[in-house]
Amino acid sequence: MRAVRDVRDTRTGRDAKTKDEGVDRPGVWSAYGVLLQYLRKRAGLNQQQLGDAMGYSLEQVASVEQGRRPAKVAFTAAAERALEAGGVLQALQGEVDRAKLPRFFRNFALIEAEVVSRFSYDPLLVPGLLQTEAYARAVFAGHCPPLSEETIDQHTEARLSRQKLLTRVPLAELSFVISEEALRDPVGSPEVMRAQWQRLLEVAALRNVEVQVMPSRRGFHPGKNGPFVVVETHEHKHLGYFESQGVGCVVSEPAEASAFALRYGKLRSQALNVEESARLIERVVGET
């Protein structure tokens, strides 16, 4: 049975009833909501007045204050202006966005955001850091068991937020080896795939990013055992990461992390080089 929370309707002063989805919400969403409520009351505003000042509805403000919905970047920017918050809400936005990620990935997302370098091999899908919004949404829409539209929206937003790593300052050294099968396997409509291929070409032009394609029929190579990531932290510690069927694992033992790095070096040598990979992607675009 779903829990029912009391919500104060600040237009009438009466308590309104809203249904909670019965799902544990990330603590940072609640913490953000408590802070938002404190700043609103300090400014002498009720929820309706704050919503009017921000261009949001009473329900949207109430949902964020209660931690039932995460604040989006635009919401936070509007709240910062309306409440003259001095950046305190903005300081939480990264954590709010990270909490939209699937639970199994959140710990690695913290590591990933601060890395010096990140190298990955992806045999089945275009890697999340390079996905367009439409491609990412199609991936989450195919989840089994099915995800709610709200969860699909949240996971998609969080994935796109991670892509700040591509242009973050200081720049991180990024390398992606993607199987040709992942490029050709349709995810979404032909229009979605065409936009995704174009996105790969755009990102590959960044000076800190290398995109290589592992051609089909290459034969056995170290990536046949599945996708994986190798990162180097600011402390120059090397870590590995892999996931399957909604389970993720960070590899921190030095010998195992070293083995991941060796395998990735072999993959880079066996894949098409950067220029050859770009030409292959361009050919794929031309075939559609």
UniProtKB/TrEMBL annotation:
* Organism, as annotated: Streptomyces zaomyceticus
Where in this chain does the record put each HTH cro/C1-type domain? 36-69
Query: What is the official name of this protein in its record?
Result: Helix-turn-helix transcriptional regulator
Q: Which Pfam families match?
A: DUF5753, HTH_31
Q: Which InterPro entries match?
A: Cro/C1-type_HTH, DUF5753, Lambda_DNA-bd_dom_sf
Which CDD domains does this UniProt record tie to the protein? Answer: HTH_XRE
Instruction: Show the segment(s) annotated as Disordered.
Output: 1-22
